[in-house]
Design brief:
Oligomer: homodimer
Largest interface: A-B, 32 and 33 residues
Radius of gyration of chain A: 19 Å
Number of strands of chain A: 14
Helix content of chain A: 25-40%
Distance between the termini of chain A: 39 Å
Largest sheet of chain A: 4 strands, parallel
Strand order of the largest sheet of chain A: 3-4-6-11
Chain lengths: ~280, ~280
């Protein structure tokens, strides 16, 4: 797009060509919102939220992120902002056996995380016209890939298998749509540059049982015998299927994933191998 | 209830026995939330919101009130708060011809005001358990009565009729549930003292066409000839019917209105007469 890019956050980014502005969005009282407005950004991608594995589902900090997001939106529009993409979640939808589809599946979240994202979503949708804002809401499904934090499925499976430790799993019959982080980022950038309005699922469209994802990872690591399906109990509140309709993403946005699940998992394992090599070398 | 009562706000209240704490909730950055927490209130009624006649429906300030409400909720729970009543609105519901009913009528607001109230509502509902909070959500319908601001239906009709000026109205076929402000306040207090959870409509249960309400007021003022129904066009977005089911309020809370519509309008006119007498005397 040939844009001047600013990244706002607590942790500096070292991406070439990106101006980093240090701000703790969550500290709504002390954050310098006028400085954010003064950037006079035309476009906004809002991807900041609590994401601590496990904890994020029910943490009261989700409420604080709604307040922080409203401050960010206010600063952005005061600065003349015209177009925004908000990163939402598949957890806003009423989960069920079929494909989750924008404008068809009801927003009936089962978690505080999903409720807070959906609440912000509804407010943005209602405020867009009075704020003269063009917006899209990206329902992000299950991103994975290089840089993933420990405590999430693939990072844990890969690291344990690489260390030669047993990998205890549930039966893994739950179906999930995983999308490689680079594909997710590309889709969000393309969405930002488009004039598509409203909800768009960001997903691969290739939902699989978790056991298949785990097996692919263990096979590539070369330690399939370490996987112990059924060693952990299936949590009754864990939904059987979270699968995305990608019609809008594909047909209206013209987006195609670059990574198959197999290639994406392989690239992720490659990244972990390099991390380990760095650790051994240092 | 025999409670120590604190009122938080920008404008001092002179109610005997009430401690006033000056705070601008909307100035979330500078408001002293620790001072709010330090009150260590057990109970909270949150009735603050933008209410400027006309403007409140679509003002972006509705978003700021959501952020302010989240800060207030945080301060209240940090201070050990146990039970809260939030004043919501009939504008959260999907408006339609039947009675609007808690847990049956979908929350599908048509306005930014309704969307923001509903967004907060959903967040409070989802956060109550993690916050260990008992809460009720009061869907307030159309309050009227002494002290009403100019720019609202009854205050304008009464004042114009008392001044002998023509009162231009729409056809006034729209049905609305009006509740006297004292009845609304009593219902909210009783709700706070109860352990009822979730949504409760705060309404009279006696919905009437607006033309009937206007006629009652003009008759009591003694100037029915000043009313000109049809002088103003009916706005197409104005819903035909906003009427409340009061089953929960009546049967589960055991609440009965003290004012009939006729008695409530009469009391309101009496208040305006006193205001005018004061003005003339001063």
């Amino acid at each position: 797009m040939g844009c001047e890019v600013h990244a706002l956050g607590r942790t500096p980014v070292a991406t070439p060509g990106v101006t980093f502005d240090r701000i703790d969005l969550l500290d709504t009282a002390r954050a310098d919102w006028n400085r954010v407005a003064a950037i006079e950004a035309d476009f906004l991608v809002h991807a900041a939220w609590i994401a601590e594995p496990g904890a994020f589902w029910a943490s009261p900090q989700n409420l604080e992120w709604v307040a922080a997001s409203l401050k960010l939106l206010d600063a952005f529009t005061r600065g003349g902002g015209r177009r925004a993409v908000f990163v939402g979640t598949c957890a806003e939808y009423k989960w069920g056996p079929g494909l989750l589809e924008e404008d068809a599946t009801p927003l009936e979240p089962s978690t505080l995380y999903g409720s807070c994202k959906a609440a912000l979503h509804r407010m943005v949708a209602a405020a867009a016209k009075p704020l003269d804002l063009s917006y899209a809401w990206a329902h992000l499904f299950f991103p994975y890939g290089p840089g993933e934090k420990p405590g999430r499925l693939l990072s844990d499976v890969i690291r344990r298998a690489m260390r030669g430790e047993p990998v205890d799993c549930t039966e893994g019959r739950q179906i999930r749509d995983f999308i490689h982080v680079q594909d997710a980022a590309n889709a969000i950038c393309r969405l930002l540059a488009s004039d598509l309005e409203g909800s768009v699922n960001i997903a691969s469209g290739d939902a699989r049982p978790i056991r298949e994802v785990v097996r692919i990872a263990a096979d590539i690591v070369g330690r399939p015998e370490l996987i112990r399906f059924g060693a952990l109990p299936t949590r009754p509140e864990d939904p059987a299927c979270i699968a995305a309709s990608v019609g809008r993403l594909r047909d209206e946005l013209g987006f195609r994933s670059q990574y198959t699940l197999e290639a994406g998992v392989e690239a992720t394992i490659e990244w972990w191998r390099k991390q380990n090599a760095h650790l051994r070398a240092s």
